[in-house]
Amino acid sequence: MWIVGFFSSLVYVFVFFQSKIYGYAVLYIYYMAVSVYGWYYWRYARQPDGAVTELHVSRVRMSLALVLTATFVVLYFASAYVLEKYTDSSVPYLDALGTSASIVATWMLAQKILEHWMLWIFINFFSASLFFSQGLYPTAGLFVIYTIMSVLGWFKWKQSI
Q: Long-range contacts made by residues 114-119, C-beta under 8 angstroms, separation at least 24?
């Protein structure tokens, strides 16, 4: 899964730069890096006792949820500012919203935190709408499929806890 994510992300870096949806373009560069991290972390997770085992699905702790929410807010305002002030982005605030939420959700995925699927359901539906409005119809369709896959992922991971 992680290797497919790496190469599909590489393709979308170019698609989104060409479409002037710069936040998403940078996001896909981030996805490439997290694909490498996630592959390694899922295979070689260290347990509190120092043992190396496969990572298991977990639930988000309230303290972590607060940190992730604060991270999202900071990322949103920072990226919205940069996109509005320094680029010719066609949708700076919407771009910043999807990008910031995706950064948080991807980190949660790499940690195998169940609740990341709830974020992906929102992000993928939101992104499908955004890409449709920008005339990126095949990409919008792909994100509708991602939305459905996110719902299925939620139920599958929930069963494993």
A: 114/57, 114/58, 114/59, 114/60, 114/154, 114/157, 114/158, 114/161, 115/59, 115/60, 115/65, 117/150, 117/151, 117/153, 117/154, 117/157, 118/154
Identify the DSSP state of 88.
-
> Any idea which of 5-9, 23-27, 43-47, 72-76 has the lowest mean pLDDT?
43-47
pTM score, two decimals? Answer: 0.85
Q: 28-63 burial, b for 16+ CB within 10 Å, e for fewer?
A: beebbebbeebbebbeeeeeeeeeeeebeeeebeee
Q: At what angle do helices 137-159 and 116-133 cross, to 10 degrees?
A: 170
- Render pLDDT for 9-44 as a digit per residue (tens, 0 to 9): 899 999 999 999 999 899 999 988 888 888 888 777
